[in-house]
Amino acid sequence: MKKYGISLLASMTFASTTHADLLVLSNPADMAGKQGWGTYTSAYELMATDFVAAKNFNGNWGQSYSPHEGTNLAIGMARAEAGITYDSWRLAGIYRSEQIIAANRDLVDLIYYNKQHQSVTAGQIFNANLYAEGFMAKGLRLDKGFELKLNDNADLSLGAGISLLQGTRARFANASGTAVSTASGYNYNATLTDSNSRATYPYISPGTPEGSGYALDLGAKVIWTQGAHLDLAVNDLFSQMIWHNMPNTMETANSATLVRNAAGYVYFNPTLSGINSINRLTIVQKLPAQANAQFNYPAGDFDLFAGTGWMMGYWFPQLGTIYRINEDWKTSLDYDTQFKTLGIGIVHKYFTLSARSSSLAIGNAQAYGLNAEVHIPFE
Question: In the prediction, which pLDDT does 64 show?
Answer without folding.
Answer: 85
